[in-house]
Amino acid sequence: xxxxxxxxxxxxxxxxxxxxxxxxxxxxxxxxxxxxxxxxxxxxxxxxxxxxxxxxxxxxxxxxxxxxxxxxxxxxxxxxxxxxxxxxxxxxxxxxxxxxxxxxxxxxxxxxxxxxxxxxxxxxxxxxxxxxxxxxxxxxxxxxxxxxxxxxxxxxxxxxxxxxxxxxxxxxxxxxxxxxxxxxxxxxxxxxxxxxxxxxxxxxxxxxxxxxxxxxxxxxxxxxxxxxxxxxxxxxxxxxxxxxxxxxxxxxxxxxxxxxxxxxxxxxxxxxxxxxxxxxxxxxxxxxxxxxxxxxxxxxxxxxxxxxxxxxxxxxxxxxxxxxxxxxxxxxxxxxxxxxxxxxxxxxxxxxxxxxxxxxxxxxxxxxxxxxxxxxxxxxxxxxxxxxxxxxxxxxxxxxxxxxxxxxxxxxxxxxxxxxxxxxxxxxxxxxxxxxxxxxxxxxxxx
Length: 447
Fold this sequence. Notes:
This protein is α+β, with helices and mostly antiparallel strands. The chain has helices spanning about 10-15, 40, 70, 100-110, 125-130, 165-180, 190-195, 205-210, 230-235, 250-255, 275-285, 290-300, 330-340, 355-360, 430-445; strands at about 80-85, 115, 125, 135-140, 145-150, 160, 310, 325, 345, 350, 380, 385, 395-400, 400-405, 410-420. Helix content is about 30%, strand content about 15%. Helix 1 (about 10-15) crosses helix 9 and helix 6 packs parallel to helix 11 (about 275-285).
């Protein structure tokens, strides 16, 4: 471990950990099951005061280690400074539910759905998959109506949960909105938008290459390497006091100014979180607003949200555009419904339909490569993952199992919040993706 103070959120949310650094193997056996590692069962932070062995505190850097992370994902604001993403002052717009008896029957039917995971010959039920993937919250909307909603672990109905790298998709959505509105020109070079970027490798990339993560920039996230770039990035971003003798960059943006080249811009997709923060900087520069302000103004205050969200910041107050948002399950469902509706919700158009059309059509599949076997022949565009399956599904995704999954064919939005022991979604996808397809087909069969 390097000898400096790291930002645990950059470390754990990471910025990234490749979402499938995984080999595509089935989920490995965790030390404790979902039921055994439930924060209530573990007794984390219970009592006044909690017993010493049940404390989860900062600046201890292990609060995002399993099983502590199963409590921490609902409590980031207690560890790190944040900025509010305001829902505004208006009343929330309630979601639509079936009658109670019908809703209960629907849950029973969905829980009993059977499917076969990838690379497996044995079926499992939908409900079994929720526990297998350490689900904390699950919401399914079909044709705009909530047909399934459950809470586990640290998450309650009125609680909030870290969404990890799904934050990137919010950043990318804002960027795509600005491009559609002519506020951000995606053909410009980064240095045309941010002259301060200097001689950084980002300077000669286009805005679009940053948005789609096809930049040729050096950034390693090998956590086993004490000299990997992730440690330098974490140290720069940490809001905690720097270690004595620290001489590196201070904050996300200073780090971006010293990034070196690695490969050719535009050649291949490389999942690197520094692209998200570079995009966040450009968005703030062209709008004169922080990411949190813009998310509130363009999204949260207009989707009928019932809770404010919040976003972690570095030591200079810059929001973590690549992984810092915490939000409520239902509000994430509203965001997914906004995407499914092509930019409209509650009878109001929030942005041009072409924004969703561009995202849902996907990126250049030839540049996606073969590094994400559980995703298959997918693509990545504007910080969204596109599966190119028969249903035209696409998703916002984050480590430890966070997902907003939009299935236009089934008219389904699914949101899962989770605290899977391992960060890589490649361990979870073999169960999750077939489960999503199975519930989509079930909902379509009822039409």
